């Protein structure tokens, strides 16, 4: 379980998050949704210990994120940020192998290589394993970064807008892969999404944020309602049942 208590973040006297308190259950997929500037990425990055909160504390699997041993935490939780930029010229295999660093300390074992191969296969990247990142499309590179996180083999995976640069086909494939990772590999996935219908189709739980606050939290079915989404996004949203799935339609 992930818990956060009285977490806030302030820049130059301006509060951008919280204070917020809550918990994210172990297992399945939890989607963070909300308009731009709602604080989704800030909260996720604080949970991932890549950003220090102004106040509050976070625990992941019972570990105090601020005080936990970095290597121990990196074997429990992995994170993919929204802005991934690596200047070194790496192949896909080299990038994905970075995910094994908490286990290998730069000296990959046979078991590490197996995890790398499995992650690339899971993301459909095996045929590109020896290709350099700058030879890939934006979508292929994004899948390689997610493969790196998957190769880290942590129970908790945090993903900040992993569908960036993906077309419809590959966005669907990515969400199906994450659903499989949650169901078959027992991963706990927390993901920032802008597409409400992907959250509806693939997430178990949704946390809706607005202006730095958590305003709604519940099952995907509970949050996918016209009244809630209209309130969160401050624009008319109509939710309809289509093929057994709650679908958000943005009213004219």
Can you tell me about this structure?
The longest helix is centred in the C-terminal third of the chain and has 17 residues, at 168-184. 35% of the residues lie in helices and 29% in strands. α3 runs parallel beside α6 and α5 (110-122) crosses α6 (138-151). It has ten helices and twelve strands. With 252 residues, it is an alpha/beta fold.
CA radius of gyration: 18 Å
Distance between the termini: 40 Å
Q: Helical element count?
A: 10
Strand content: 25-35%
Global geometry = globular
Topology:
Layout: E1 2-11, E2 14-24, E3 28-33, H1 40-47, E4 55-60, E5 63-64, H2 70-74, E6 77-80, H3 92-98, H4 101-104, H5 110-122, H6 138-151, E7 156-160, H7 168-184, E8 188-192, H8 196-202, E9 205-210, E10 213-219, H9 220-223, H10 226-233, E11 237-242, E12 245-250
Parallel strand pairs: 3-8, 3-9, 6-7, 7-8
Antiparallel strand pairs: 1-2, 1-4, 4-5, 9-10, 11-12
């Amino acid at each position: 379980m992930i818990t956060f208590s009285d977490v806030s973040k302030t820049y130059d006297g301006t509060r951008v998050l919280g204070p917020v308190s809550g918990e994210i259950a172990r297992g399945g997929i939890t989607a963070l949704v909300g308009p731009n500037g709602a604080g989704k990425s800030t909260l996720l990055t604080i949970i991932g210990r890549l950003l220090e909160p102004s106040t509050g504390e976070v625990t992941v699997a019972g570990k105090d994120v601020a005080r936990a041993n970095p290597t121990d935490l990196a074997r429990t939780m992995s994170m993919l940020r929204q802005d991934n930029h690596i200047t070194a010229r790496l192949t896909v295999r080299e990038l994905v192998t970075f995910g094994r660093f908490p286990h290998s300390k730069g000296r990959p074992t046979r078991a590490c290589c197996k995890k790398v191969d499995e992650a690339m296969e899971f993301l459909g990247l095996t045929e590109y394993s020896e290709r350099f990142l700058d030879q890939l499309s934006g979508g292929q590179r994004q899948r390689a970064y997610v493969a790196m996180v998957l190769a880290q083999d942590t129970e908790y995976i945090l993903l900040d807008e992993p569908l960036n640069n993906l077309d419809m086909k590959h966005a669907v494939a990515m969400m199906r892969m994450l659903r499989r990772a949650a169901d078959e590999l027992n991963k706990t996935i927390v993901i920032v999404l802008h597409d409400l219908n992907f959250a509806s189709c693939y997430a178990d739980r949704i946390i809706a944020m607005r202006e730095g606050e958590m305003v709604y939290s519940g099952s995907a079915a509970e949050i996918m309602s016209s009244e809630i989404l209209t309130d969160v996004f401050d624009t008319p949203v109509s939710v309809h049942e289509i093929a057994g799935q709650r679908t958000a339609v943005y009213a004219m």
